Each structure stands twice: as C-alpha cells, then as structure tokens.
Amino acid sequence: xxxxxxxxxxxxxxxxxxxxxxxxxxxxxxxxxxxxxxxxxxxxxxxxxxxxxxxxxxxxxxxxxxxxxxxxxxxxxxxxxxxxxxxxxxxxxxxxxxxxxxxxxxxxxxxxxxxxxxxxxxxxxxxxxxxxxxxxx
Length: 137
Hints:
By secondary structure, this protein is mainly α.
C-alpha cells in the first residue's frame, strides 16, 4: 500500500492554506487550536514515524551486514529492531491514512470576488413645500 510522505503531505497543507509550512506553523502558534494546528500535528507525527523507520532500518542493516557474525546476543537485537521497525511502519501508515482523509475532506475556499456595484435606487424627492393659506396683500 503506497502512502504519501510527510513532504507530500506538507505540500498539500501548503496548497490548502496558501502559505509555506513555516509560516503556517508560526501562525498556528498564536491562534487557538483548530484544524490547522491539528493538520500540523498529524504532519509532525508522520514525519517522526518516517524518521523512526529510517533509524530502525539502518540499525537492522548494520546488524545483518554480510561478514558480521550473528550470535545469541545479536538475535535479541535483531528481533527488537524488527519489532520497533514494524511499530514505526504501523504508526506511519495510520498517520498517513488519517491526515490524507482529513485533507481530502477539506477544500480551499476561493477568495470572495467583489460583486459588480449595483446602482443604488434614486433618493426620494423632497416633500413639496407647504403653502401658506394666508393671502398676500
């Protein structure tokens, strides 16, 4: 199953909000918690899971390097590394699936376009002046 990476998710967040991720993170720091802070948190969790996958994959690669003897002691490290790698992959998969579902449910709202000015109705004519009933002399 192919998942979007944290870099691709960051791009989608930037597209949705129309600003670079660094600006969005700074903006979210001064705002009450909302959708932006939730998306940024999910992105951070996804990036952390990806880094964890890289670390555990590297550790396993060092443990099974050709020419390295695998004894009783190394087996426990291999099993622990494989377990940790599997956990990191599971976390990455859940985070990617969740943030993608949220992003797909959102759409960028276009900026409001100014409506053409409608002419205002003409002002009513002032009432006629009252005429005096007194006759002039």
